[in-house]
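Two proteins follow. First one:
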Amino acid sequence: MLGAIVGDIVGSCFEFNNHRPKDFALFTAESSVTDDSIMTLAVAKAIMETEKKMGPAADGAGNDRDFYRLLKAMTIKHMQEIGRRYPDCGYGGMFFRWLFSDDPQPYNSFGNGAAMRVSPVGFVAASEAEAIRLSEAVTAVTHNHEEGLKGAEATVVAIYMARSGFSKDEIREKISGRYYELDFTIDGIRDSYRFNATCQETVPQAIQAFLESTSFEEAIRTAISLGGDSDTLAAITGSMAEAYYGVPEDIKEKALGYLDSFLRVIYEEWQLFMENRRGSAHVK
């Protein structure tokens, strides 16, 4: 999850002021937390609260259906409760209306918000199959268009594979075979790529930026250098890069400094939650 937050913060000042070179300051006075980080933390909170009530998902167990039903309800609850505290952080128009609705319903979106917030799923899932089911549960509450669901699922599968020791070649093969043709390079599309808020024109590019990288920091710089919806692109790329490389301590500390006390508490709660899960051997 931290990788998505880092990518969001670094990309925040380039979203409408694209910067194609890779040489830039990662953190500045103009950098900020946007909706990408806030909704990522909301999804993490929903997962934690669901497990507090029911324990981890157990595919095939009697309470499996109830788990996913509760997770959907918790996702709506915490996205609305947390999101409403930050009304000016960059939400899209349809999501903003959903966020403040008394009867929130999915609105057939394929916007890249589906993928920007889903990274906690990739880190918590105990199997690829579970990652896919969790992804659908937390995504379909808003982005129930097949392209929105696909963008989120491709992201969590890449994260799950990256943290589980699969090679980049294996990740590329999986994504290309099931989700998107990765028949391009970042250098090859940089000059022509423009702002696009859809999953189908953001997620493949974010995955490719990760696959071409040699370190966490380079992954973020490569994503930013592509332009487009920079904070979301870098958030998606950063989530995969965290799973594969980890986040350097200096970058972690700088990024966490941008979280206010409310968001920092959720982040710390997630860290403890993941440590406890690793201790119980549910998550690798």
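Second one, unrelated to the first:
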Amino acid sequence: MTKRTAASSPPRTKPHGLTYAQAGVNIDEGDRFASMIRAHMRRTHGARVISNEGGFAGLFRLDYNETLFKRNFKDPVLVACTDGVGTKVKLATQLGSYETIGQDLVAMNVNDLVVQGAEPLLFLDYIACNKIEPETLERIVSGIADACRTCDTALLGGETAEMPDVYAPGEIDLAGFALGVVELKKATDPTRVEPGDIVIGLESDGVHSNGFSLVRAILREAELDPKAHYDELDRERTLGEILLTPTRLYAAPIVTVLRRYRVKKVVTGMAHITGGGLADNLQRALHPGVDAVIEPGAWPVHPIFPFLQSRADIDPEEMNRAFNMGIGFCLIVRPTFADSVAQQLSDLGERTHIIGKVTKGSGKVTMKPRR
């Protein structure tokens, strides 16, 4: 295994007898890859990162000197999560397209962090593969670094595991680990959600990174070619390019808006819409005394969803459970601030929609019948 915080190894003499490389693990290629990507890591580092070249772990200042930074934490709470890209990597490997799955990896983690009201601080990645191919893996890490910069998050380190006995030739798996911080009094709390609160939905950019086992099954059953263009979709992009559109990074605009309300707690809940769909994930933001009533026609459904549904005759309920269906993130907001928050997020580049309202209930999400 190759630690990304480690310095380059010294030259090695020629070994005698059976070697690690003959067993399928090339330490020299791992070291070369680690050396190649250090520049990508460094471009995500700010003044909070403490240099630790050659160390076994990264160092990061949580609290800091007021003369160097704008604010100190008074009652900081660490927020941590881990997630992967799932079987979307299978499609990326099939198409030899690795530029976007790095953003998927970061987004799946930092989008979860901001649900708690947290500011993402640092990110670590884990790449497992059959064989280290530095040029290929660099394309993934470059995408990770680009996404971390967008979220103002330090790529502090990582691990690359070459395991030929576990992964077949060409196979790759990705996992990410994110750490953030939130002032305790500003952390989201489902008990603050009240009847009358408004649900704001932020559009997704497509399938994102959930449901790809079903996507790949649809491709097989309907004999769809990911390298082909289809009239129902964007004619300038292949089906594969559309499916590999990365998970949208919601962290930066949401953190920006939350910082503008230093006293008032106008956002009462949030949800990252991943596996389980809109209803299951939004329900996690509620307490047993309220329901969220959602109006399905309040946002445009991305064309990829009806395309996939029609090609394999997928039941609508199954579509709603497997996919985000066009909404990638939700905020629950006090009614007097809903229009303002939606406009602020729109000004920051999000496509926002008022998609529902909170009522008295029993902690459920219900879909309002279409008129």
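SUMMARY FIELD: The domain at 2-184 is CATH 3.30.1330.10 (60s Ribosomal Protein L30; Chain: A;). The mean pLDDT is 89.
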